[in-house]
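A quick aside before the break. I want you to see a complete sequence-to-structure record at least once, exactly as it would be stored in a machine-readable document. Don't worry about memorizing anything.
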Amino acid sequence: MTAIRATPVVSDELDVHCPYRVDAPTMVQEWCSLSFLHWRFDPDVVQALLPTGVLVDTYDEEAWVGVVPFVLRIRLRRTPFIPWVSQFPEMNVRTYVQGPDGRPGIWFLSLDAARAAAVGVARRVWQLPYMWARMRVVRAGSTITYTSRRRWPAPGPRTHAVVAIGPAVEPAATTGLERFLTARFGLWSPWGQDLAFTVAEHEPWMLHRSHAVDFTTDLLEAASLPVPQGDPIVHFAEDVRARLSPRELVPAGARIDPSG
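That is the input. The structure line, written in tokens, reads:
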């Protein structure tokens, strides 16, 4: 098994603070001008989209799926930041899961990004479902607009989101649901026929409780989800800097069967 170079920090519950320290990051990312737009889903519907060994995580017996647009800045270990290459918009569709060992994390159903080269590397190295899209992020005062149209591997889903940024809430004052949706410091992803776990160590989010002035997308349907019911729960955050650990292999023999 590949050893993870991250030191766990004892924590009795999911909270706003990362339960890991990443001592030797393979990559540093900044997630800027980020919005979370979340909907409730039937857990069985979401579970059907996950591989064996990955269990949908629930809050009040409901699964949650988010559309998360932002601007990504990347710096690989020992390499300088190159603005055009290393900075671009991204938009992911994500849900919340537990891995075979019970560690909570994120599972990406799709990721659209505006750099074709980055998409190719991420698909090959991380085995993540990245797509190439034409995207824009425009900030005007307390309003931010995200637009996206997928270009590859086939032209498809479009998104137009206008978020009115609301008041900030201190991390200690966030609700249990807000922590469930945003205090996620690990990523589960495929590794061949197995799984991998990656830690993303960062400071607590400074969330702004916000709302969508306008929102249309077919990203959820493209990810094999039904059309969501009702308006999304919306949060905005200015930026956070994350230190990513090497991926930890979880062998197939360590998996659990969600059917019990």
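Two observations worth writing down. The chain has one domain: 20-253. The mean pLDDT is 89. We'll return to this after the break.
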